[in-house]
Amino acid sequence: MKEKGILFILSGPSGVGKGTVRKRLFETSTNLQYSISVTTREKRPGEVDGVDYFYKTRNEFEELIRNGELLEYAEYVNNYYGTPRKYVEETLEKGLDVFLEIEVQGAMQVKENFPEGVFIFLFPPSLEELKNRIVNRGTESEELVINRLKEARKEIDMMDAYDYVVVNDSVDKAVEKIKAIIQAEHLKRERIAKQYKRILEDE
């Protein structure tokens, strides 16, 4: 009896370490599929269509938006990026879990379009620590750091929209907690009940 996969969405304020946690998680978990995004940006050397991104023209992307084929999308520096519904649904049907690492605004769009997803909010140990992480990147001006922190405060206020909160005080601890969430979700009574119903119908 093949169990359907679950869509997990990892989100949180900029600088909280989403990318680092996701990479470490993927080094230790085999049943997770990273959600491949659709983009209108040019393919870079070495990138492969359908592996790094699904590459589309602007017209093709806007067609996907009109047809409701994206779980979320945004525009950065004149390029669109989005999460394709079809790829996610087909991967879940194969019994694989799909993992999406995304900004808070994108996560709210996914929640609207795919409410059965499991939403995990990655939380900084403190705003001071978040500020240090953004500053230590060394890529942003003081003004941009202040704006990012203001934005982070707003994003933290949206935490109520999530199913779980994981404090990222240590990458390894955060990864262990996320793995525990994944396991717990697969053991939820309503998910198992659906499987049992199918077994009973087959008898």
TrEMBL record:
Keywords, ordered alphabetically: ATP-binding, Cytoplasm, Kinase, Nucleotide-binding, Transferase
GO cellular-component term (any): cytosol
TM region(s), chain numbering: none
Name this polypeptide is given: Guanylate kinase
Keyword Membrane applies: no
Subcellular location: Cytoplasm
Annotated ATP binding sites: G12, P13, S14, G15, V16, G17, K18, G19
Organism of derivation: Compostibacillus humi
Family: Belongs to the guanylate kinase family.
Source species taxonomy: Bacteria, Bacillati, Bacillota, Bacilli, Bacillales
Domain of life: Bacteria
InterPro entries named among the record's database cross-references: GK/Ca_channel_bsu (IPR008145), Guanylate_kin-like_dom (IPR008144), Guanylate_kinase (IPR017665), Guanylate_kinase_CS (IPR020590), P-loop_NTPase (IPR027417)
EC code(s) of this entry: 2.7.4.8
Function: Essential for recycling GMP and indirectly, cGMP.
